[in-house]
């Protein structure tokens, strides 16, 4: 529960301000901010309001964490880049605040961790990888992948059609004619024409 009583006194022995029994020193605040905790995190930890924490930051001559610790936040999060973890999981692994993690990802990728994971999942759904392998890569459950596949209409049949069209287009770009493509892919020329017609209609 947050203390809302603003009565406090200075403890000379511990170089701390005491808010209704909660002693908060400069050393404690600096340690929390070095760990990447936000003002909200520190306030919740000590059971005081964010206003009191901002008062202490000014009183002790500290910098607010979002400016002081951004370089350390980058170094902490760098090893996890590309692992497609959720913000909650990153908070659990690093001890950083949601604000710090979100700011890092928006600055580096212009997207949140969830957005990046969603984009990678959609890209993987368009491949021939099974649901379980995709789930392992993006740290989701196979059931979630299955639901998203159905919702986005990216099932086995749709994937095979899209992959075949991509193969046809790639061979056309390489300069092969329809007879050569049909032979290489073991399909008929009428199938090639049908796929190309659909591709033109889609565009």
Written overview of the protein:
With 203 residues, this protein is mainly alpha-helical. It has 4 domains: 8-66; 68-112; 115-151; 156-202. Helices cover 64% and strands 6% of the residues. The chain has 13 helices and 3 strands; from the N terminus they run E-E-E-H-H-H-H-H-H-H-H-H-H-H-H-H. A 3-stranded antiparallel beta sheet has the order 1-2-3. A hairpin with a 2-residue loop joins strand 2 (16-19) and strand 3 (22-25). The longest helix is centred in the C-terminal third of the chain and has 18 residues, at 156-173. It is rod-shaped, with a radius of gyration of 27 Å. The termini are far apart.
Uncertain stretches: 1-14
- Gyration radius (Cα, Å) is 27 Å
Strand content: 5-15%
The global form is: rod-shaped
* Structural class by sheet pairing and helices: mainly alpha
Mean pLDDT: 80
The ordered string of helix (H) and strand (E) elements is: EEEHHHHHHHHHHHHH
Oligomeric nature of the chains: single chain
* Order of strands, widest sheet: 1-2-3
Tally of DSSP β-strands: 3
Number of domains: 4
Compact overview of the structure:
The chain is mainly α and 203 residues long. The protein has helices spanning 26-34, 39-46, 50-59, 65-68, 70-77, 87-94, 98-109, 113-125, 131-138, 142-151, 156-173, 178-185, 189-202, and strands at residues 8-11, 16-19, 22-25.
